[in-house]
Request: fold
Amino acid sequence: MKKLLKYLKDYKLESVMGPLFKMLEASFELFVPLVMANIIDTGIKNADQPYIWKMCGMLILLAAIGLTCSLTAQYFSAKAAVGFGTALRNDLFRHINSLSYREIDTIGTSTLITRMTSDINQVQSGVNLVLRLFLRSPFIVFGAMIMAFQVNVRAALIFVVAIPLLSIVVFGILLISMPLYKKVQKQLDRVLLTTRENLLGARVVRAFNRQQDEMKKFDEENSLLVNSQVFVGKISALMNPVTYVIVNGATIILIWTGAWQVEGGIITQGAVVALVNYMSQILVELVKLANLIITISKSLACANRISAVFEETSSIEDKADAAVLAANAGDAKEQPAKVEFASMDFAYAGSSENALSQISFQAMRGQTIGIIGGTGSGKSTLVNLIPRFYDATGGMVLVDGVNVKDMPLQALREKIGIVPQKAVLFKGTLRDNIRWGKSDATDEEIYHALEIAQARDFVDGKDEGLDLMIQQGGKNLSGGQKQRLTIARALVRNPEILVLDDSASALDFATDAALRKAIRENTKDMTVFLVSQRATTIKNADQILVLDDGNLVGRGTHKELLDTCEVYREICFSQLSEKEVREHAEA
Reply:
């Protein structure tokens, strides 16, 4: 939590003024029992109505001043808490975006969503309540005890016994409940994960008629969450009745001893009423403090979870600058290869085995590199290493002769156009989505990219043209339309390296062929990596890489691999007839 307090630095004034005005409110509140004592002992006892009215006016004035202080404190506290939450949320979002795929995979998307929303909201509420009540409640408790000593020392000794007992109860329950709230938040992550999977996979769930199974799974996770919350709630709920028992017991003793003292003329009736009022104030404030402690427990648990995300550092270290890049690279056009893998090994976090082993090849400028292999062979992993979504664990990946680890990430990724395996579009116009590739792209450039991506026809068929509104995730488009738009998004930036990660799987063969032809004719010096499961898609590539279980088992042209690579031959014969395979080899 201490690490998060820096987000209050821009709200130092509000963080001071909020508690200050609450203390002023509390100070005026402590004078109320003394005024009441004077009304009883002087006004009522002597039937002095002018004095009574005067003291009533004093009560109204104290109430007005207290209300003004309270509203002012509320304003400053709310401003500081909301500003704190906003700054924290922005910084956390920025930090999450700085993490590499490795850290995001490890933490989990559902956990990050929970910490960005529920956890920050809980911490923000905690900050608000702390600024308003954390100083006020103890001030009232100890202030009431001091004021009680001013009224009568002997009677005030009851306060000396009651307050330590109450402190033991409050802080004892805090120590017990705080670890339990951490478990509740972890279970909330699991509920969110189950919900997210169900909503994202709604079509699959319904297609396989698994609604009942999913509901049962959610019910089990939700029941665990409810049981955890009920258990910690029962412990926290002990606070109110125990504090009530202690305070009311102290009040009974106070009235009992006060009555005997009044009888003996040691203390006045007004003084007894003042002492009872002070005890009541202590009761009210301790109830508030008890609820505050519960909120603080939740907030501290959430703050620790947020801090844990901040403690995660990206495994991708962006340490070089443009000057270093220029010194290492020289003239990029004179480099022997645009992309080179040199004895490269890669393993995912937590895995004891390599996903890719000893991968070595060169991709020259203007070449098209086809990548093919069975499911799980490492095709997508291989191309994800080029833009440094992951770092190689052994060997090197070079672009323009420079190790990608020594290149500024921005400079590296500006060279590359990525079309991911899963077509992702964002809510907004079609123009806005394409401009993700190039923020200042003109309509002419966008239409040119759409033509190459074979998407111009369906865009022209829409009355809105480039102003077509795309729903979240592109839900109002077909799979093939989404894939073609993501290809256009990558092409509009005219990258030096284009990575197509199985990005035409939803296209028919004719559209796929037209797309490959258009890319080949319009990309000139662009180096293209074409990942596909289809042999026909990559057969005309200048160089084909064949992967099998993370190993490069073949490299060459379609014709060469038919003669030298058993894995490639099996893939081709599983998709095409022997006659078609030979015809493609001779073409």
Notes: The CA atoms of residues 120 and 235 lie 24 Å apart. The chain has a mean pLDDT of 83. The two ends are 67 Å apart (CA to CA).
